[in-house]
Design goal:
heterodimer, A: about 260 residues, mainly alpha, MetI-like fold, about 75% helix, B: alpha/beta, Rossmann fold, Alpha-Beta Plaits, 2 domains, 14 strands
Chain lengths: ~260, ~325
């Protein structure tokens, strides 16, 4: 079956890899968009509803702010604690509700987003907390609304850190996407499993590793490039070294 | 222009309760530069932040330009804040925006459209002397230049009042002087009322028309500088003319004479010595320019009898000088 002298083997390999890469990129990119769209506001709310935050007293009630903060914090912790393979099975009813089925690449985007959102929300939270509170104060003194402070001060100032957080988030989405073969999601992980493990094809494994390595490294390079570009501090090294620490954290493996 | 009336503010609860402001009242006149001076922890920072309600007082009222700030709702407060500029010790500039972008932030908040923002930012940057730096980022500039951006940003929306929260405390003496000069200039040219807080007496000396001394959350003294320096026993005046301690071994009567206005350049001491035939010793002297006027204070030791000393003091007072008896027995 693994007859490398057979020309069919190579053309099959290429087909399988193209298909797998396409599925991986499809799942990862859509999941990433969903993650940013949901995770960014979630992170902002996490910081904002803290004591003394911008949204500490929504509707004039500090109690409401505290409750929202606690609930979000709990949900984020819960999301980050559950191993991905378990989460993927547990959310099947929800996936069905959203996509109509729980099988295939599109369906796999749901659990991938669900696992990445809390992760990215924490990254956003960390990045926002690094912004000097004096800037919020200055914007307040100018008469800015809360929305203006978020949009014109907090997000632009936290952007370099958030981009590096995003880079770590993509890496972890790619990591988790390797497991969606379980729900027939396809992707490069599935190629490695079916060809490399079940059919003993080392060539498939090596090819998958090389492709994933290239994807992760190029995304990280792009994120770092933009993070540096937007970091206008007097010591860009300082800003990036803090971010390098983020990158050094091993991507969580579902635990 | 700014009226702070019976304002109190407490932080923390129980054992950790600290009174930051205790029934503080202040009156800042239109177009003047008013300095609140005090040590760190005296409550001056809390005080200035209550003026635009960055810190909401527990009780008391604040009026700025005829508007009762403490009674405003969120939306009205934001509009009122647009008329109250503020500059900060650590500048608080956005590192993600250029110099122009930082200034334009103040105009975006107000809702000024793009082209007008650019024109206004250009004007105001020229006023603060940063016309060539519009496209630079704050990180590329020096501390003094950063504070100029802060000033430009605070003035962009044409406020009637400027609050300065230790604006020169992070700067070296040379830069401090140039920033204070700039504050003086905008105060004159734009008719801006300035309330500043500082722990440096030099700041009060060089730019303020009026001052208040704050201690333990209370105003110990306040008034116009020209009046304070001729007020007997004024602690601010003593701070303005530091003469140090009286030497322990003085036997006679020690007096402080304050010269102000046109009296500063008369040969008072030589005359005193001649008319009363006493050998005065000068223990200390200082001359300062306060609120644009030359003023000085001299500490003398009068070695005569109580009677001759009293006559000498009466003579000095007769000339319109402020004489305070530091030690000794002369009435």
């Amino acid at each position: 079956m693994n007859d490398t002298s057979d020309p069919q083997f190579w053309s099959d390999l290429v087909d399988v890899l193209i298909l797998g890469t396409g599925q991986t990129l499809y799942m990862v990119s859509i999941a990433l968009v969903v993650t940013v769209v949901v995770g960014l506001p979630l992170g902002i709310l996490l910081v904002g509803t803290e004591r003394g935050g911008l949204f500490a007293s929504p509707f004039g009630s500090r109690t409401a702010g505290r409750i929202i903060n606690r609930v979000l914090d709990f949900v984020v912790n819960l999301g980050r604690s559950i191993p991905f393979i378990i989460l993927m099975i547990a959310v099947i009813p929800f996936t069905r509700l959203v996509v109509g089925t729980f099988i295939g690449s599109t369906a796999a985007i749901v659990p991938l987003s669900l696992v990445a959102i809390p992760f990215f929300a924490r990254m956003v939270e960390i990045a926002l907390k690094e912004v000097d509170p004096g800037l919020t104060e200055a914007a307040n003194s100018l008469g800015a609304t809360r929305w203006q402070i978020v949009r014109k001060v907090l997000v632009p100032e936290a952007l370099p850190s958030m981009l590096l957080g995003l880079s770590t988030t993509v890496t972890s989405i790619i990591n988790f996407s390797a497991m969606v073969g379980t729900v027939a999601g396809g992707g490069l992980g599935d190629v490695a499993f079916r060809y490399g493990y079940q059919r003993y094809s080392t060539i498939h494994i090596v090819a998958v590793i090389v492709i994933i390595f290239i994807i992760v490294q190029s995304l990280a390079a792009i994120a770092t490039h933009f993070a540096r570009k937007f970091a206008r501090t007097s010591s860009p090294e300082g800003r990036v070294s803090a971010a390098d620490k983020l990158e050094l954290q091993p991507a969580p493996t579902g635990a | 222009m700014i009226s702070i009336s019976h304002v109190s503010k407490t932080f923390g609860v129980g054992d950790r309760r600290t009174v930051a402001l205790d029934d503080v009242s202040l009156e800042v006149g239109r177009g003047e530069i008013f300095g609140v001076v005090g040590q760190s922890g005296a409550g001056k920072s809390t005080l200035i932040r209550t003026v635009n309600l960055l810190e909401r007082p527990d009780s008391g009222e604040i009026t700025v330009d005829g508007r009762l700030i403490t009674s405003l709702g969120d939306r009205e407060l934001r509009i009122a804040r647009q008329g109250i500029g503020m500059i900060f010790q650590h500048f608080n500039l956005l590192s993600s925006r250029t110099v122009r972008g930082n200034v334009e932030l103040a105009l975006e908040v107000v809702g000024v459209d793009g082209r007008e923002r650019r024109t206004r930012a250009g004007e105001i940057l020229e006023l603060v002397g940063l016309e060539g730096k519009a496209d630079a980022y704050p990180a590329q500039l020096s501390g003094g230049q950063k504070q100029r951006i802060g000033i430009a940003r605070s003035l962009a929306a044409r406020p009637s009042v400027l609050l300065s929260d230790e604006a020169t405390s992070a700067l070296d003496p040379e830069t401090t002087r140039s920033i204070l000069e700039l504050l003086r200039t905008i105060n004159r040219e734009l008719g801006l009322t300035v309330l500043l807080i500082t722990h440096e007496m030099d700041v009060v000396k060089s730019v303020c028309d009026s001052a208040a001394l704050i201690e333990g959350g209370r105003i110990a003294e306040q008034g116009r500088l020209v009046e304070l320096i001729s007020t007997p026993g004024s602690r601010l005046a003593h701070e303005l003319f530091p003469l140090g301690e009286v030497p322990a071994n003085t036997s006679g009567t020690v007096i402080d004479i304050t010269f102000s206005g046109g009296l500063a350049d008369r040969p008072v001491i030589a005359q005193l010595s001649r008319t009363h035939a006493i050998d005065v010793s000068i223990l200390g002297a200082t001359i300062e320019t306060i609120a644009g006027n030359q003023a000085g204070r001299t500490r003398l030791e009068l070695p005569g009898t109580p009677a001759t000393n009293a006559a000498a003091i009466a003579d000095l007072r007769g000339q319109g000088l402020l004489v305070e008896i530091v030690t000794g027995d002369a009435a």
